[in-house]
Specification:
Blueprint lengths: L2 H72 L5 H21 L2 H19 L8 H17 L21
Helix pairs in contact: 1-2, 1-3, 2-3, 3-4
Length: 167
């Protein structure tokens, strides 16, 4: 075998092998980038879904807080129909949190919902007025962790300016 015959046979095969290797490497790198992008997009979607559930829950809880504030200020009971609808919305929003959020947040949301329900329906059973505030604080801290906010917990001190139950 001479060099001329060998080069016309081996060099094209070597080129095919190098081309195939380059193509496979390129596809591997492109697939890896696509996989990372997909994982990132999924994380963003999960965070958005959790955030929506949390905001819905907080909106429903705020309606109950407002009814409690109304009751405290006027010494009258809020309209029973509105209260029932607000409690229903709160429990429904809590169930949404249970579906899409962490177990810690789901438990905190349940505890806060129960505290609000008892405060509204049976105020004479409420033994510790700070329990509702503590339950709200735990919900907020769990929610912050669930949507990826890191750092120190928020301080929860009574503000000398505000006298409402909105901390």
């Amino acid at each position: 075998m001479n060099w001329e015959t060998l080069s016309t046979t081996v060099l094209p095969l070597l080129g095919v092998l190098l081309g195939t290797g380059g193509t496979l490497l390129g596809q591997h790198l492109a697939t890896r980038v696509d996989r990372r992008r997909l994982e990132h997009d999924q994380l963003v979607a999960v965070r958005a879904e959790r955030k929506a559930a949390i905001l819905s829950f907080l909106d429903a809880a705020q309606r109950i807080e407002m009814a409690l504030d109304e009751r405290a200020e006027s010494k009258d009971s809020p309209s029973e129909v509105g209260v029932q609808e607000n409690i229903h919305q709160l429990w429904l929003a809590k169930k949404n949190v249970e579906l899409v959020c962490s177990p810690e947040l789901a438990q905190s949301a349940h505890d806060y919902t129960y505290a609000l329900h008892v405060s509204l329906k049976s105020p004479d059973l409420v033994t510790d007025p700070s329990a509702k505030r503590q339950a709200r604080h735990l919900v907020m801290e769990s929610a912050r962790r669930d949507i990826g906010i890191t750092g120190r917990p928020l301080r929860r001190e009574l503000s000398p300016v505000s006298t409402t139950s909105d901390d």
